[in-house]
Amino acid sequence: xxxxxVALATPPGVGAIAVIRLSGSQSLSIATDCFDGKDLMxxxxxxxxxxxxxxxxxxxxxxxxxxxxxxxxxxxxxxxxISCHGSQYIINRIIQLLNKKGARLANPGEFTQRAYLxxxxxxxxxxxxxxxIASENESSHAAAxxxxxxxxxxxxxxxxxxxxxxxxxxxxxxxxxxxxxxxASREELKELIKGIDKVLVKLIDSFQxxxxxxxxxxxxxxxxxxxxxxxxxxxxxxxxxxxVSDIAGTTRDIIEDEINIGGVKFxxxxxxGLRDTTDQIEAIGVERANQKMNEASLIIYLFDLSxxxxxxxxxxxxxxxxxxxxxxxxxxxxxxxxxxxxxLLDNSNYISIAAKQEQGVQELKDMIFAxxxxxxxKTGNVxxxxxxxxxxxxxxxxxxxxxxxxxxxxxxxxxxxxDIRHSLYYLGxxxxxxxxxxLLDNIFSKFCIGK
Length: 451
Description:
Blueprint: E1 5-8, E2 15-23, H1 27-33, E3 35-36, E4 47-55, E5 58-68, E6 79-86, H2 88-101, E7 104-105, H3 110-117, H4 123-134, H5 138-148, H6 151-175, H7 186-215, E8 217-222, H8 229-237, E9 255-261, E10 264-270, H9 280-295, E11 298-304, H10 310-322, E12 327-332, H11 342-345, E13 350-352, H12 361-372, H13 387-408, H14 413-431, H15 437-444
Parallel strand pairs: 1-7, 8-10, 8-11, 11-12, 12-13
Antiparallel strand pairs: 1-2, 2-6, 3-4, 4-5, 5-6, 9-10
């Protein structure tokens, strides 16, 4: 924390410009020492200055120096951002020069780690920085931005404050154990825990949605060989991703790709045709298709309207209902039939398309989005997207259940206080009020260097 660190803040490679970031107590003096321009030490914070980076008498590059003085910077330390030309040679020369002047290379995530350690934000907000950088669609961006602005932190803080009051009363009772006094009503504590548990259940249950927001909605396309699954996948992706052939059983392995629908990432999975087969490789593909159906959030059952019997379609639908997952029955090759069965037309889970001609594909996309129920996600909602947070919430819930059982069993105050401390500990893990060096190293090592 006493060192001045330096790193490239923009992606490596050739570009018009690059940004090199310095942070630490010596940032301004080190930058000034190799800058042929104004004395950065006396400039105001949040000002930009033009000049040359020089190594002795040699001009390395024309640059812009942006000055951030503590505590008004991302790290709450003195910081300088150097905007130079995007040549890899220039970038390396400037970083080597700054190293020579006394700045060391930053570790992964060290700028954000310093921001957290200096009180810029809590641990949950710091982790959201990485999620924001990695966001690829509207929903993941909204979830990360909400967390970075303190969405989940406010919820956790409110829960902890309620518990801390009762914890302090129980601890106080321990000091007066010989006098047999009660400062904290056990019934009020149980009611408080019941209210906290409702919030915890909401947050824990939101992790499934959060995981989908972060990683994409898995949608599996299943059906018999030659139903047009690969053609449909190509139509959805608007590219020739899968091999299309009239030969049955062409697709033998899983093919996946992603598209954005309505600001949400969907992962489409094309599978081998479902049928009994003696071909060992194709059989493995069919087995994987069944596995993917169990893992998917949405199942598309694609069938050939011109060949598939209504009885088979309805039997398959019953099997999908038993899986207890959202599904869509998609009748393909509608251009080859004069009419569609009324039993299907009256089914809200049915849609017909002609994948090869790309007819009805947009309507199918709209139906996929509606079935995913992702339109229920709003920017203001607190959604848990981090597996570490989810585990801490589950641990908190278990500890609180121990408190209730302890009250019912009339356990002594010292054991009751210990269970409450466990609850506070697990909640504190989320925001970093409780942390270890190993935990911090593990979290920030997953960040990119320069952030």
